Amino acid sequence: MNYQHQELANGRWQKLSFIEQMANIGSEVERTISWRNKGNGEYSRLAFDRTLELIDLTVAELKKFSRLKELLRVREALVDYFLGDNIYKSTDKNWQNYFFSFGYAARINPGAN
After folding, report:
1. 3-state DSSP assignment of residue 110
2. From CA 76, how far away is CA 108, in angstroms rounded?
3. Which of 4, 7, 32, 112 could form a disulfide with 47 if both were Cys (CB 3.0 to 4.6 A apart)?
């Protein structure tokens, strides 16, 4: 597979805690939203592709079923929001709020799982 995050795909991603991984996924979601709101569909799509790539890298290594279940539901809802019919009625603010917690936790306690 041709990864956009080649260095992360080569093992660096698995060295990050789950919280740090989710914070990074949230950063890509934020970029996706930002580019879409600026009217740049191409950059928004590329950011969303990176979002899915990071989620898939996380899923590939998850051992805890509860986290795997949540992450797969997040992936499904994100795809629905950005590419589907938004049947879950997500909003930019919902996603920003969801991922904010991970970014905050990663900053105040780096490496914590």
Report:
1. coil
2. 29
3. 32
Which class for 65: exposed (0-12), middle (13-18), buried (19 or more C-beta within 10 A)? exposed
Return per-residue pLDDT of the chain as tens, 113 residues.
Answer: 565 655 665 677 888 999 999 999 999 999 999 999 999 999 999 999 999 999 999 998 887 888 899 999 999 999 999 999 999 999 999 999 999 999 999 999 876 66
Separation of alpha carbons 5 and 41, rounded Å: 20
Report the predicted TM-score, pTM, of the whole model to 2 decimal places. Answer: 0.87
What does the alpha-carbon distance between residue 10 and residue 4 come to, in Å, rounded to a whole number? 11
Question: What does the CA dihedral 103, 43, 15, 93 come to, rounded to 10 degrees?
Answer: 20
User: How far from 62 is each of 15, 30, 68, CA to CA, in Å?
Assistant: 12, 23, 6
